[in-house]
Amino acid sequence: MNPRSTRIARLVPMAAAIGALAVLSTACASPSQEVAQVSQVSSQQSKYKGTELGIPTPIPPVTLTDVNGKPYDLKANAAGKLTLVYFGYTHCPDECPTTMADLASALRLIPADTRAKVQVVFVTTDPDRDTGPVMKAWLGKFDPSFIGLTGTVAQVDNAAKLAATPVEPPKKNPDGSIEVDHGTQVNAFGTDGLAHVVWLSGVAPKDIAHDITLLS
Fold it and tell me: Is 29's pLDDT higher than 50?
């Protein structure tokens, strides 16, 4: 990581035509936030603790590669389950591990029968370094059931765009460090194949658990 780089976390009108909500994290470093006008339900009107989208986002109909090198059809494998999709990378020093830890904590707060209906999917935005074994070991520190997916930079970029999550290809700085820009929201795709809610950075595990119970 470049110590001089800073993270700019902001809501951006990504895929504004469908009212999508997104957060961009530049290099996962220091905090700053700016809110843009996008289609979302006000917190006073919403029953969710996360951010309810005015127009839900469909789950991407894409096939990526799991940690064992096998094809993984994201939409097909999400059928009948609440699928929580996050785009990030294992070398991230803050947002990614914090989010995975928060999701793991939230899942421990819900009943086992509800937990069985939920799956967490982590899609790497740094495919060159995040090999299958690297992702498997890293995700296992949070919850062995978490699913890791990879693909080419183009495949990951396409999946992220379809999920209304902004990402940028990894960039190598002159000092040799790698900078990876990615959205920091968790997209909660329900059993209907639509994300009605996203959790932005900083949402507490108990609030995530609250919403999971409503969505499952």
Answer: no
